[in-house]
Amino acid sequence: MNRTANLVLISGSLREGSTNTAVVRTLPGLLGDRARPLEYRGMAALPHFNPDDDVEPLPAEVARLRQVVAEADAVLFCTPEYAGGLPGSFKNLLDWTVGGTEIVDKPVGWINASSSATGAEGAHRALRAVLGYTGARLVEEACTRVPVPRTAVDAATGTVTDPEVREAIAEVAYALVGHVVAGWGALTTGEAAE
Predict the structure, then answer these.
(1) What's the rounded mean pLDDT across residues 87-114?
(2) E strands, the chain, where?
(3) CA 168 from chain center: how many Å?
(4) SS3 of 105, please?
(5) Across all residues in the chain, what is the average pLDDT?
(6) CB contact at 8 A, 73 and 4
(7) Cis bond leading into 163, ω under 30°?
(8) Which of 24, 113, 130, 148 is deepest in the core (most CB within 10 A)?
(9) Helix H or strand E encompassing 129
(10) The predicted structure's pLDDT at residue 185
(11) Spatial separation of the C-alpha atoms in residues 43 and 9, rounded to whole Å
């Protein structure tokens, strides 16, 4: 099967110089021809979630978010922790995915880039819970902590330059893409058997 996986990359941070955004920006250079990466950058433009607005026609940026997720074969998140949980803007993005079906059964993973002592455990516990409500399929081998110290990020490009950290980031993405490709293989085998 000569198909390339569409991998959507979403940073949960709006902060300039975020190590989480640095991870997301680094991934396209690491994936080669293993996947077609697309970084979703519209989080700041999403309106505050209101169930009354989750009807057609959707707000334009919500419709764009859902379209991007619908066209993805998998989604990889990278989020910081704020006040022991998910940043509000990122939780808002996730809330907008609950009402749609685009992420249902979609393979998802995350990279925890925190280099703090707590390791942003609260954010990733919350992320796991919210993704459960969305119906996304967590790929456990693609959900891991890869601490990214600020010294590992090039200020000019906003990407991770440390070779060991880059390799660890790539391994998470490869695991997620590998899961997608294995699923395609299982489908092909099942179709051939029929």
Answers:
(1) 95
(2) 5-11, 35-40, 74-78, 107-112, 137-145, 153-154, 159-160
(3) 16
(4) coil
(5) 92
(6) no
(7) no
(8) 113
(9) helix 121-134
(10) 81
(11) 12
